[in-house]
């Protein structure tokens, strides 16, 4: 239906004398240079973390980096010990966690096993972030330069924006699974190939392999890609209905082959995800209504040259979800490109696709500078199957790709003008790109230090206490706001189990219920979190002591551990001592050996 090879007519390049050819920039050298620039830019963005991967994290810190490191350690166990890949009870013991429903990034973690083994999960994390940014830019450059535009500069501009847009920089703080979009350009390309394929069975099978791989990187981004391709092709057909007659058979056959093959490959993992242990249906209410503010499209992103965190505070759900933030200059340029190239079917289809998903990204309530205006169309879709697990603000990532492709087309069209016009357009194009892209140029992620893994853990002193079916309980108890114990476990390749943690699970641990962050509510977990936050030591009664012991027995706790440098460590120590008796110091932690209290005989 859409013949991407015919979008731009390729002029044959004039032959060069042999003597000069040795000194020219060949296509291969140009490609390598562009890839090198992308890699250097990614290293620039992550440079603050690279200085000390184990001791630094993005300053806009949440629990996600620790969770990703835990999943990377799980991949090591899958490869070295043959551990079941789709579920684990190494955290949230004994209920466990459905990893297929928690973005366990197996397609990223398994290839990274050598790095994780040699250098640790913290190095693997920053490596994935770096390669995610550079790889996504390189992949879009590759597809654009081979199948849409002839000029390498046009493809480089489009690839740059797709890889280093404000949205990608925002997710680089915490979400390597979301910024690892290097398969998406090839999925889009193979879908377009199906519209004119002479071998739809083969092409459908190739698409199925790409889809299967992406499902183990991030299913939400795969769903976005499918939706974007559908809307784009529909927009093309509406404009040129005659294309449908030629495209419907190869497209239908290819997609059917893709669905059957990918469905067969993913059938069991998807069954585990939706019907296996600790499966849930629908996202937590905490994130289901995350939406962009309209003003977010006209404001530079926080991790950019012109960004301002304070100005953006109410325009996005949080700093890792700045999924628009193009700035006024780029927004105006994108509109100008659409007006300039409005006669082209592809441009109109791209514009319709980008606008459609920009509106959906506004969420259930459309707002302007944090003031609610009207109900958004997302409210009509949010309860549909699959869409009930989507974070709506992330639809802005589709609009981001659309803008990147429009930039590539604009640079290509400017370069293809006549000699006289070309001089003027080159100047205008260069000025426009600088005007639009400079305010959102990537800056290094701001970093902060984080507590080191206790020597008690790294020196393996815990091993003399904790058995295979017992847990190490940290103080405070692992939860969404306290993920350091997940890093402790990850540093040992998950050699010990922990209760709680940060993950999505069904409410109250009942398989099939709506999702929430964390496992079953823990009374002692909430108590210790309050003590850490306030620094006040409560007076506990016998009922609370019995409840704590019941929870320790449920977790099959062997030891309770409190780092000496934990915030409000002294009130926390006094609180736990009221529950299980005096602590003793061992290396850099307070330790309670509770095996006699939690054993079956007790």
Q: Can you tell me about this structure?
A:
Keywords: Membrane, Transmembrane, Transmembrane helix. InterPro entries: DUF6311 (IPR046278). This is DUF6311 domain-containing protein. The structure is a single chain. This protein has 602 residues and is an alpha+beta fold. The protein is 54% helix and 7% strand. It contains 28 helices and twelve strands. The strands form five sheets. It has a four-stranded mixed beta sheet with strand order 7-10-12-11. Strands 1-6 form a two-stranded antiparallel ribbon. Strand 8 and strand 9 form a beta hairpin. Helix 5 packs across helix 8 and helix 9 packs antiparallel against helix 21. It is elongated and about 85 Å long.
């Amino acid at each position: 239906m859409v013949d991407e090879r015919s979008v731009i007519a390729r002029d044959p390049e004039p032959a060069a004398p042999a003597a000069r050819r040795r000194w020219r920039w060949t296509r291969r050298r140009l490609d390598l240079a562009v890839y090198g620039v992308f890699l250097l830019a990614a290293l620039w963005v992550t440079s603050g973390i690279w200085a000390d991967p184990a001791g630094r994290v993005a300053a806009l810190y949440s629990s996600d980096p620790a969770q990703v490191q835990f999943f990377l350690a799980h991949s090591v166990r899958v490869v070295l010990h043959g551990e079941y890949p789709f579920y684990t009870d190494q955290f949230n013991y004994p209920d466990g966690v459905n990893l297929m429903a928690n973005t366990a990034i197996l397609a990223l973690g398994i290839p990274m096993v050598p790095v994780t083994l040699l250098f640790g999960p913290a190095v693997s994390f920053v490596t994935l972030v770096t390669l995610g940014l550079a790889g996504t830019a390189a992949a879009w450059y590759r597809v654009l330069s081979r199948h849409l535009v002839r000029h390498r500069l046009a493809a480089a501009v489009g690839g740059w924006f797709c890889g280093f847009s404000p949205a990608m920089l925002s997710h680089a703080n915490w979400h390597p699974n979301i910024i690892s979009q290097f398969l998406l350009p090839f999925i889009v390309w193979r879908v377009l190939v199906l519209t004119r394929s002479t071998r739809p069975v083969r092409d459908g099978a190739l698409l199925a392999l790409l889809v299967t791989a992406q499902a183990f990187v991030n299913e939400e981004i795969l769903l976005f890609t499918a939706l974007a391709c559908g809307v784009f092709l529909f927009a093309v057909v509406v404009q040129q209905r005659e294309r449908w007659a030629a495209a419907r058979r190869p497209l239908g056959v290819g997609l059917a082959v893709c669905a059957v093959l990918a469905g067969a490959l993913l059938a069991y993992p998807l069954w585990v995800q939706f019907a296996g242990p600790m499966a849930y249906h629908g996202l937590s209410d905490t994130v289901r209504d995350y939406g962009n503010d309209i003003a977010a499209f006209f404001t530079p992103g926080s991790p950019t040259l012109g960004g301002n965190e304070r100005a953006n505070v109410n325009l996005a759900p949080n700093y890792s979800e700045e999924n628009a933030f193009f700035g006024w200059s780029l927004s105006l340029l994108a509109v100008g490109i659409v007006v300039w190239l409005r006669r082209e079917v592809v441009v109109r289809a791209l514009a319709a696709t980008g606008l459609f998903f920009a509106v959906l990204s506004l969420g259930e309530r459309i707002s302007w500078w944090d003031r609610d205006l009207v109900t958004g169309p997302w409210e009509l879709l949010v309860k549909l199957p699959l869409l009930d697990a989507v974070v709506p603000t992330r639809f802005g990532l589709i609009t981001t790709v659309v803008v990147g492709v429009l930039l590539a087309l604009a640079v290509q069209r400017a370069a293809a003008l006549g000699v006289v016009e070309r001089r003027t357009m080159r100047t205008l194009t260069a000025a426009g790109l600088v005007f639009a892209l400079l305010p959102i140029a990537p800056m290094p992620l701001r970093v902060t230090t984080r507590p080191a893994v206790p020597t008690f853990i790294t020196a393996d002193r815990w091993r003399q206490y904790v058995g295979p079916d017992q847990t190490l309980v940290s103080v405070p108890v692992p939860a969404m706001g306290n993920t350091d114990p997940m890093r402790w476990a990850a540093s040992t390749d998950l050699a010990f189990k922990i209760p709680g943690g940060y993950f999505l699970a069904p409410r109250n641990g009942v398989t099939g219920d709506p999702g929430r962050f964390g496992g079953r509510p823990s009374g002692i977990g909430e108590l210790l979190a309050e003590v850490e936050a306030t620094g006040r030591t409560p007076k506990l009664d016998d009922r609370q002591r019995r409840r704590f012991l019941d929870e320790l027995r449920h977790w099959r706790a062997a030891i309770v551990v409190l780092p000496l440098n934990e915030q409000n460590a002294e009130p926390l120590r006094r609180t736990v001592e009221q529950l299980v008796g005096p602590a003793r110091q061992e290396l850099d932690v307070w330790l309670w050996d509770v095996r006699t209290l939690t054993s079956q005989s007790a």
